[in-house]
Amino acid sequence: MNAVAKIDDNVAELEMEAPTQPAATPVAVTPPVAPAPVAPRKKRRLGRFLLMVALPAALIAGGAYVWVTGGRYQETENANLQQAKVSIASDTAGRIVQVDIADNQSVKQGDVLFAIDPEPYRIALAQADAAVAGARLNVEQLRAAYSQATSQEKSDASEVGYAQSQYDRAADLSRKGINAKSSLDEARNDLDKAKQQLAVAQQGIVSAKAALGGNPDIETDKHPTVMAALAARDKAAYDLAQTTVKAPADGVISQASSFKVGQYVGSGTPLFSLVETGDTWIDANFKETQLTHMKPGQKAEIVVDTYPGRTFEAAVKAIGAGTGAEFSLLPAQNATGNWVKVTQRIPVRLELTDADAKMALRTGMSATVTVDTGVARGFPKIFGHATAGEH
Question: Which helix (H) or strand (E) holds 187?
Fold first, then answer.
């Protein structure tokens, strides 16, 4: 007992000597989470199988719906705007004395573009007027010659009558033996001369009548000579009028930067171009497989790259007569054994029906064309039944 008490005393002393420790903070213990129940393996496989089947089926169904209901609107990006380009040239040759245009300038129909020195053509017109007056004077002279030939024919006819009476008198006296034979011969000679002069006078009438166009009473300005002179005068007046060149239509001047005053131009030589803004169309190259239901008159929409947010209305005007390859300089030869079928493109011309769009567009712009054919693909024909999309 003493030993045990001694040990207890030692323990008490050691506890008194040891430093006081702070009380330990109680730790919160999270209760363990129960594991989720594991689905049966058979059910998981079934869900995965249904997902694998449903997703492709939905995609196939959606694609089939799009394909069946599609095809009504045929679209191509292979399209360009076109405008008529007129080469401006002068009908007369000469030196430029006036230029009223500049490159890329807008002009109206009838505006003066440039003028050629008109002085040489004024002189030519004056000469033509003089030629007309001379032709008219010549006709009057021919008419006077015809009158003179007619008078000469009458005079020669009278001479023939007188010579004939003289010959008859001489012949009667000769038969009676009163007149000598020499007198009869002289009378016969005078009669022959008179007849010859009458024949010459009659030929003169024919000639004078022919010079008057076969009609002695012809109007002076209807005579061929006068008509030719009048035509030459009209040509001279036309040439003078053509020294001032005007715009044939509304448009924009192009390629005129080097056209200046003082330049000599020849007749018919192209000088610059006029792009007609009032004549605008679209050439769209569709695949041959897109033309099954396309016809002239169908409505279309045009989107130009320059104005991506704006749509222009148009209509199909005509479908080309052949593919682009058929009208190329070197048509393709498909007679070889290594021929590969390639889908061809056929040009389709569309006419803008939006009048406000024509001034905002320029030739050569790229465009996207969508044509409403009014016919969807529909379901294939089965047992003679029509497709759902046919109209």
Answer: helix 181-211
One-letter amino acid of 330:
L
> Contacts for 119-122 with beta carbons within 8 Å, 24 or more apart?
120/94, 121/92, 121/94, 121/236, 121/239, 121/240, 121/243, 122/240
The C-alpha atoms of residue 260 and residue 272 are separated, in whole angstroms, by 11
3 state SS of 298: coil
Distance, in Å, from the CA atom of 322 to the CA atom of 128, rounded to the nearest integer, reads: 53
In the chain, what is the greatest distance between 2 CA atoms, to the nearest angstrom? 236
Helix (H, G, I), strand (E, B) or coil at 221: helix
CA-to-CA distance for 246 and 242, rounded, in angstroms? 9
Instruction: State the Cα–Cα distance between residues 377 and 382, nearest whole angstrom.
Output: 14
Average pLDDT by stretches of 10, the chain with 391 residues? 49 48 47 51 68 79 66 89 92 94 92 95 96 92 86 84 81 73 78 85 84 84 91 95 94 91 92 90 92 92 89 92 78 69 89 75 91 76 43 42
Spatial distance between the Cα atoms of 352 and 312, rounded to a whole number of angstroms: 7
Q: What is the pTM of this model?
A: 0.62
Q: Of 108, 102, 109, 116, nearest to 272 (Cα)?
A: 102
